Amino acid sequence: MENILLAHGGGGRLTKKLIEEIFISELGNEVLSKLDDSAIFEHEGGKLAFTTDSYVVNPIFFPGGDIGKLAVYGTVNDLSVAGARPLYISLGLIIEEGFPIDELKKIVKSIKEAASFAKVKIVCGDTKVVEKGSADKIFINTSGIGKIISHEISSTKALPGDKVILSGSIGDHGIAVLQARAQIHFKSNIESDCAPLNALVEKMLSSKNSVHAMRDPTRGGLATLLNEIAKSSNVNIFINEEKIPIKEEVRGACELLGLDPLYLANEGKLVAFVDGKTAEGILSRMKKDPNGIDASIIGEAKKGKGTVILKTKIGGERIVDTFSGEQLPRIC
Amino acid sequence: MENILLAHGGGGRLTKKLIEEIFISELGNEVLSKLDDSAIFEHEGGKLAFTTDSYVVNPIFFPGGDIGKLAVYGTVNDLSVAGARPLYISLGLIIEEGFPIDELKKIVKSIKEAASFAKVKIVCGDTKVVEKGSADKIFINTSGIGKIISHEISSTKALPGDKVILSGSIGDHGIAVLQARAQIHFKSNIESDCAPLNALVEKMLSSKNSVHAMRDPTRGGLATLLNEIAKSSNVNIFINEEKIPIKEEVRGACELLGLDPLYLANEGKLVAFVDGKTAEGILSRMKKDPNGIDASIIGEAKKGKGTVILKTKIGGERIVDTFSGEQLPRIC
What residue spans define the domains of chain B? Predict the structure, then answer.
């Protein structure tokens, strides 16, 4: 059997074979392997975080990652920026009839490696198969549960005086996916930044409660994230263009293609609004993590009504608005 | 704006508008409305259940339900049969470009009503849009978290001597979806049995730990469920055909179409393996619930190696095996 059949999603013998030979053999653990409808786990009490994301990236394999790695790290990161330690991940697959089983195996292997690297467990799953033409190859939903290990971090909590820290260069994921799409005839060595941020976040948290707001700039990029926090927290945000790390090749690709890196998707970066007095300390701790080496204080929040202002390299100022349309569909 | 555009999934202004005007206005609660990447909730400690399911039913509206109601109740039921009280649900939508916004509103309204009826909260969500032709209208993933309120219930725990209780008639959902498909020229008044089973399950649980295994017979139907439990618990299961409630219209439709009701999907039924001595007591409590009125003891588990045997109405016996292929694709 080399391709996925409708019967693989029918709940019968072929479904069981698929689950046992592909999922359990790679991802099995004491919870998942029970194959009950729900995963059961013990929790000692306290706050939990719960998040969900579907991944429809096209193509499903790209430089630096694939849809499986993206699905695990994306949910790990959504939990991490909420101040949670990611623990359990669910896996919901929608597969197009005819999808090559070898590619499914590659994706499941990548999910296994990502879960192991990020120290999370895949504890429950579901597979549906739809007729050829009713989906594009494979879509993955991951939902996740984490244990809150910090005070409240929220997009509504940024304060005037907060410094804005960006954990590294922007736009890598967007350009990596673009170059992997056949229709873009463009060569670069840029790889997706797809990475789990939980270890970085744990280094940033302290008993001083100095991280007020934190998000990861995925769809919509840095610009959209800053606008959301500016509006939710009712502050103005001033950003210095020259402080924003952008790789030369990403900058070049953006110029060639007419794209603004501020709106490009990232899959291994975060932005934190931190108490001004503690910013340098947090920055130096971040730089000790592989995903924070290029971290930079890129600006600060001030009293205001929700506007994002970019101080350009040549000394001007411009308002950075939310993108209205869609710069790059199916980037994640 | 009457149809979904790619930009509705782009993370920018149109995404925000969609979330605020369609999702928050219907589903908003104190957790969801914060619009952070994760929902945060307090838990006092103890065991939790976690489950995930994607819904790809075709058509998305059918007699007795729609994809939204199905997605909420399906996850509520997966938690319930694990002995959990369902609490929090996540909502991941994948929408095809061009999908009518009016239909999306109908689905979201149905999700709201289902969540309210089943007493669960939608606490986090995600919306992706793919190009026309890259998905079939709309797919929904719901993941859910519940609090375990029973001893361990598992497909591995059925014992010889256990009675098998089925909560009501089988096949309604399968036939309802079939008749809604344009290609099947067939009329009946059968509606999907799509319903939340959490209230029924709470009536079944007691301090006596007498419910050993419990599942809901969705994809693959009653026959597949019994085979899974027979194999997981290493027992033989004997079922009396005449004790299995099947509506006359469902039976008629099955004869006409050459379908076996034992393999048809259900969306508001459960099967429980309970201690023989307590079976009558549990049955009488089940009959007091609207979703258990037609409950029936349909058979029992005996020592064995995982075989399911049906005693037919004419007095014979036949082995009921797992379906190998796919009787009806995209039934849930």
Answer: 35-148, 163-319
Is the Cβ of A306 closer than 8 Å to some Cβ of chain B? no
Which residues in chain B are closer than 8 Å to A55, comparing Cβ atoms?
128
Cβ distance B44 to A41 less than 8 Å, yes or no, reads: no
A182: contact with B, CB 8 A cutoff: no
CB contact under 8 A, B155 and A35: yes
Looking at residue A325, its pLDDT comes to 65
Name the CATH superfamily for A35-148. PurM-like, N-terminal domain (3.30.1330.10)
3-state SS track over chain B = CCECCHHHHCCCHHHHHHHHHHHHHHHCCCCHHHCCCCEEEEECCEEEEEEEEEECCCCCEECCEEHHHHHHHHHHHHHHCCCEEEEEEEEEEEEECCCEHHHHHHHHHHHHHHHHHHCCEEEEEEEEEECCCCECCEEEEEEEEEEECCCCCCCCCCCCCCEEEECCCCCHHHHHHHHHCCCCCCCCCCCCCCCCCHHHHHHHCCCCCCEEEEECCCCCHHHHHHHHHHHHHCEEEEEEHHHCCCCHHHHHHHHHHCCCHHHCCCCCCCEEEECHHHHHHHHHHHCCCCCCCCCEEEEEEEECCCCEEEECCCCCEEECCCCCCCCCCCCC
| A40 touching chain B per CB within 8 A | yes
Mean pLDDT score across all residues of chain A: 94
Nearest by CB: B44 against A40, A45, A56: A45
A81-99 tens-digit pLDDT: 999 999 999 999 999 999 9
The answer to whether the Cβ–Cβ distance between A12 and B324 falls below 8 Å is: yes
A163-319, superfamily in CATH?
A: PurM-like C-terminal domain (3.90.650.10)
Q: What are the pLDDT digits (tens) for B105-140? A: 999 999 999 999 999 999 999 999 999 999 999 999
Model-level pTM? Answer: 0.96
Residues 222-281 of B with CB under 8 A from A: 224, 232
Question: Mean pLDDT for each 10-residue chunk of chain B (332 residues)?
Answer: 88 88 91 84 93 97 97 98 97 98 97 98 96 98 97 94 98 93 70 97 89 95 96 97 96 91 96 97 97 98 98 94 78 91
